[in-house]
Amino acid sequence: MFEQTKAFSGFSVNDIAAAKRFYGQTLGLRVSEEHGLLTLHVAGGTDILVYPKDDHTPATYTMLNFPVDDIEKAVDELVERGVRFERYDGLDADERGIFRGGGPLIAWFTDPAGNVLSVLQDQ
Length: 123
Prior knowledge:
four-stranded mixed β-sheet, three-stranded mixed β-sheet, Glyas_Fos-R_dOase_dom
């Protein structure tokens, strides 16, 4: 039924203007806005919809992952742009906030609405 449908993902935020600044300026994504909705244009041609929600509750899971070639460089650049990396109980991260305990190297951060994002080293 949907094998020819170009599906896309979306998530909510509580402040579209703050999200537009964060995703466009801080993360450097191409962002467009139409009818009060944001579209994040990411590599690979799949767009992501960001919509306002008055009773927004931040995602408590990683809802968007950004694979990078060099996680240390990516983390350092994001810190320079004001991003703060999260630390979670039971996951021992290094001084940069990078978890090296199995699986891909990964570091988590949040957007202004509190949604969890990550950078992870592309193996």
